[in-house]
Design goal:
This protein has 538 residues and is of the alpha/beta class. 38% of the residues lie in helices and 24% in strands. The protein is built from 18 helices and 28 strands. β14, α11 (298-310) and β15 form a beta-alpha-beta unit. α2 runs parallel beside α9 (240-249), α4 runs antiparallel to α8 (221-227) and α11 crosses α12 (330-343). 48% of the residues are buried. The structure holds glyceraldehyde-3-phosphate (G3H). The site of glyceraldehyde-3-phosphate has 9 residues, from loops.
Length: 538
């Protein structure tokens, strides 16, 4: 293995004096039943994807967190169950206005922790400073947008419906206890895209931070404790088998919100003794293709494909994971793409202008090398000079050409900085890829011919859940529906869809008699019910 460019990393390795965050960060605190408790048991080490010199040795140990046992996990669950109290607890019965106030207080406290959380994002998962800041700010915006969407939802249900002599008030009620588990690539944002709507709709929550990206939640323990009533938010840490299995096997979870792999989602769902009683909201795998037509604007397409395939090193479920390029423009497209890929700066997350950073997953560079070896053995090529080079946790962006369906990369979700290119002559080839794929999240089309694009759109919308024209695939804006077909998702998330996912339409109905009308009037006037109310939230 040649090691070109790798000296940048050696010269960039920091010694501990230069680290601008106090490491080691040993998080011994945990939040259960409204109490911040101290963990005295086993701890799990946190290894950063970034290496540094410590006492003359190369190290990447930046901290540790509790390796909880099953008993403690069940305490967290029971605390959420007690706080929900079959829907009679303080939180599920609280008025929406008061719940919104708690959420606003949480936002106020969360904003104070921005710097710490951004640093931890960089250190734990290697996300660039710019993207780490974006993840934090996007999460704050998501919470504020959720509050607005809830107000809107509540306003629409503040009026009564009278149909066929029956008066009704139709609203949304919480579902119970929600287990939230987010992914490592957006450990804050994607965890919160389920946690926040689940909470604000009146559910109580147990959440487990992803395997990578745990410590960054630590600065928020006090905010959760102070903003919400006791037991509403509980956090578990440790190995899934020890902490998640008993929680699911208890049968007390009403909603599983999980973003991660299909394999883990299947295991989790089966652990509930009555899986049909647990609603599942799942964001899973994807292998979004870009279909590049003969008349595509090359400059723009290359730009979008680079961001689409390589931002956060390709570790986005929405990343462009395979490019189908028409043979008439294939060579010039590859030439331009390679030239831009070679300009990407590889380095540490806080360095200005950096694009490619160290990968946090265990043995990821070995996995990616394996994918490249497979294509090389089957006749494909590495098209860029720096491709297929790696150093510890850093893998240089690698453009592969002559990729075919015989190769693993054609089917596997690489979730890393590899850009496989398939040359096609008939449009049936990329379409068959989409039709035969196990995944169905999004696709991108690049071109100008309105007739051809319309035909492609009409086929693709029945295969995937978002078709992007002349742009990369992406989740945002967060108000847009985010979902997928086949192995890519179960349920739809967006700011407003998520409020629906974590609640159920529930109504109170009574015959339109004078006596009943009087009774209803009295309830409204005396404000004796939290559910029945015609108050208009402003
Ligand atoms: O990992 C999947 C994320 O939901 C992608 O979100 O398209 O905003 O990066 P993004």
């Amino acid at each position: 293995m040649e090691t070109i460019k790798l000296d940048i990393f050696q010269s960039n390795i920091l010694n501990t004096n230069e680290i601008h965050f106090p490491f080691p960060f040993d998080q011994v605190e945990y939040l259960i039943d409204g109490e911040i408790r101290i963990w005295n048991g086993a701890m799990n080490q946190v290894n950063s994807p970034i290496f540094f010199q410590k006492e003359g040795e190369l190290s990447n140990l930046i901290g540790s967190y509790p390796l909880m046992d099953s008993e403690t996990a069940l305490l967290a669950l029971n605390s959420a169950v007690d706080a929900y109290q079959n829907g009679t607890g303080e939180w599920p019965k609280m008025s929406i206005e008061k719940r919104i106030n708690c959420m606003l207080e949480f936002v106020r406290l969360m904003k104070l922790e921005r710097t710490k959380i951004v640093h931890l994002l960089m250190w734990e998962i290697g996300k660039t400073q710019k993207d780490s800041e974006k993840e934090f700010d996007r999460t704050i915006d998501y919470i504020l947008d959720t509050i607005q969407a809830l107000k809107e939802l509540d306003r629409n249900s503040s009026r009564l419906t009278i149909e066929q002599g029956i008066i009704a008030q139709i609203k949304r009620a919480p579902l119970g206890v929600v287990l939230c588990m987010g992914p490592y690539n957006y450990p804050l944002n994607e965890t919160f895209t389920t946690l926040i709507p689940a909470l604000i709709m009146g559910n109580t929550v147990v959440f487990k931070p992803p395997k990578l990206g745990v410590l960054l939640h630590s600065p928020l323990l006090k905010a959760f404790q102070q903003a919400f009533p006791k037991g509403v938010v509980n956090i578990v840490y440790g190995e899934g088998q020890k902490v998640i299995t008993p929680i699911l096997e208890s049968g007390k979870i009403n909603v599983l919100a999980f973003i991660g792999s299909c394999r883990v989602a299947d295991i989790l769902k089966k652990q509930h003794p009555k899986p049909h009683l647990m609603k599942a909201v799942l964001g899973l795998e994807a292998k979004n293709p870009a279909i590049i037509l003969p008349d595509a604007n090359l400059e723009e397409t290359v730009k979008e494909c680079i961001t689409g395939a390589l931002s956060f090193n390709g570790q986005r479920c929405t990343a462009l994971k395979i490019l189908f390029v028409h043979d008439s423009i294939h060579d010039i497209f590859v030439e331009k793409l390679v030239s831009e890929v070679e300009k990407l700066k590889v380095g540490l997350p806080w360095e200005p202008g950096i694009s490619i950073t160290p990968l946090p997953e265990h043995k990821k560079t070995e996995y990616l090398t394996g994918l490249v070896e497979d294509v090389l053995n089957k006749g494909a090529k590495v098209a860029n000079p720096s491709g297929n080079q790696y150093y510890k946790t850093v893998f240089f962006p690698t453009v592969l050409t002559d990729v075919s369906d015989k190769m693993r990369i054609f089917h596997e979700e690489q979730f890393g900085p590899i850009v496989p290119i398939v040359k096609y002559s008939s449009i049936e080839e990329p379409l068959n890829y989409v039709i035969n794929s196990n995944y169905g999240q999004q696709a991108s089309i690049f071109g100008k011919d309105s007739q051809q694009i319309s035909e492609l759109v009409d086929t693709l919308v029945n295969q995937v859940c978002r078709v992007n024209i002349n742009s990369q695939c992406q989740r945002g804006p967060d108000t847009f529906p985010f979902t997928g077909r086949k192995d890519s998702a179960e349920g739809t998330l967006s700011v407003s869809d998520a409020l629906r996912v974590f609640s159920i339409r529930t109504l109170v109905a009574l015959k339109e008699t004078e006596e009943n009308k009087e009774l209803f009037r009295k309830i409204l006037l005396e404000r004796s019910s939290g559910f029945l109310s015609t108050d208009y939230l402003i």
